[in-house]
Each structure stands twice: as structure tokens, then as C-alpha cells.
């Protein structure tokens, strides 16, 4: 079921959205060569705690997970695409890091992700991240009343495929509201004019996941959470929570 939010609810959802943006900024600021992924998680935790927000990631245990998620962020490095567990791995020069974070405040949830490099960046990584951001922007631009889910999916997929990248199969965006994962699903590739019609009051997490090597396959780590590219190439993941309004898309997780 898709819950349509009122104007007031969408305004209220800006609060957790802003906290997510601040937590991501703190994690990114903390990231440097020699800093551990646990340090990035701590930086995000401090922001959530300071705002009085709770984490929808911490303790989250979907059907596929062998253990509850132990962090407030997912930290996915290099060939890790999404769902990386923040651990004692220390960042190295040239790493590509994706941080995904959620916050719950006032009974509403926000969900967003950023990708960036640490130290001296590889040009190929910068291009991958730029393309992921362009795909996200294209998906957001298509998130307007009268369009359909397939229009968002097509916009994202076209940017990724045109650049020659793979798109992670099986995973994509989702509705956001009182909980983190709600209907409808928002695929990262699809046919225009297909799927559910977009209406004012829908709130969607839009989240392209790109694979540099050009294939779509992934594998799961022994930890049961971290999803990595099958070909070992690097991946990027970016995400915003976006409200569909009569005036067009409103990014609720903007800084
Ligand atoms: Mg997310
Ligand atoms: Mg999400």
C-alpha cells in the first residue's frame, strides 16, 4: 500500500531528512586516509544523538540478514556496492567510499547516501561518482505528478547505461514514511510510461547503484550483509529521499 502524505507530513519529514544530510556530511568530513569505518559511523552517531534522532539502520534485520545491522551507516568501500558494515578497516589512499544513512525523528524517516573518494582520487572513480549523481538527478527530475515509476527508472537507467556502467540487479529505491522501506519499489532501470502513477504526497527514496565494470551481477560477503560487484570493479551509490508535490520534486534529504 502506498501512503500519500499531507503537506504537513512532508514538511515534518524534512526534519529527519536534514539530520541525515548532516550525518552524511559529518561522516564525509571525518573520512581520510588511516581513518576507520567505525570512526565514520561514530561521526554519524554523534549527529543523530545531537538531534535526538534514532537510527532505522541500527538493529535492522531484513529476511536476508543473518545478524541485525550493527551500525547507523552502511560503509561500502571500492567493490562493495551497498550494505557494508562499518568495521575497523582503515581507509587507504584512493579508496571509493559510499555512505548510506537513515534517521528517524518525530515519527518520520529520512534515507540518503553519498559516494566520494579519499586521498588522491582515480579519474575513473570520479567519473563513476559523477555519473551516479547525474543518474540520481535525472531520476529526481522525473519524480513529478503524472509521470510513472517507470519514468524514474528509465531516467536513471539511461544515464547509467549510456556511460557504459552496470546497474546492481535486484536492489533499488523504495517508498519512505513512518518506516524506511515502504511501497512502491523504485527500480533503477525500466520502461517509460509503465508502473504506478506518481501522485502528490508520495515520498520515494531514489538510489542508483552503479557498477564500473559494466556488468549487473553482485555477490554477498560472508558477513551476510555486504554486497560486492561480482567482477571486482568499483561501485558507487547515491540516494535522496524525495517528495512528489504539485510543484515538482522536493528533496527532503538536501543539506
Ligand atoms: Mg539508504
Ligand atoms: Mg534507501
Structural account:
This protein has 255 residues and is of the alpha+beta class. It has one domain: Creatinase/methionine aminopeptidase superfamily (Creatine Amidinohydrolase, Alpha-Beta Complex). It contains 4 helices and 14 strands. The protein has helices at 7-30, 37-51, 123-141, 149-162, and strands spanning 73-77, 80-82, 96-105, 108-117, 166-167, 173-175, 182-186, 203-206, 209-211, 218-220, 227-229, 235-237, 240-245, 248-251. A 5-stranded antiparallel sheet has the order 7-6-8-13-14. β3 and β4 form a beta hairpin. α1 packs antiparallel against α2 and α3 runs antiparallel to α4. The protein starts with 6 loop residues before the first helix and ends with a strand. The model has no long low-confidence stretch (mean pLDDT 97). One magnesium ion (MG) binds at residues 100, 111, 113, 239. One magnesium ion (MG) is lined by residues 100, 111, 113, 239.
List keywords for this structure.
single chain, 255 residues, 3-stranded antiparallel β-sheet, 28% helix, globular, binds magnesium ion, initiator methionyl aminopeptidase activity, metal-binding, EC 3.4.11.18, hydrolase, aminopeptidase
Oligomer: single chain
Average predicted local confidence, pLDDT: 97
Bound molecules: magnesium ion
How many strands, what sense, and barrel or not for the largest sheet? 5 strands, antiparallel
Cofactor: Co(2+); Zn(2+); Mn(2+); Fe(2+)
Domain Peptidase M24: 12-246
Keywords: Aminopeptidase, Hydrolase, Metal-binding, Protease
Binding site for a divalent metal cation 2: 111, 174, 207, 239
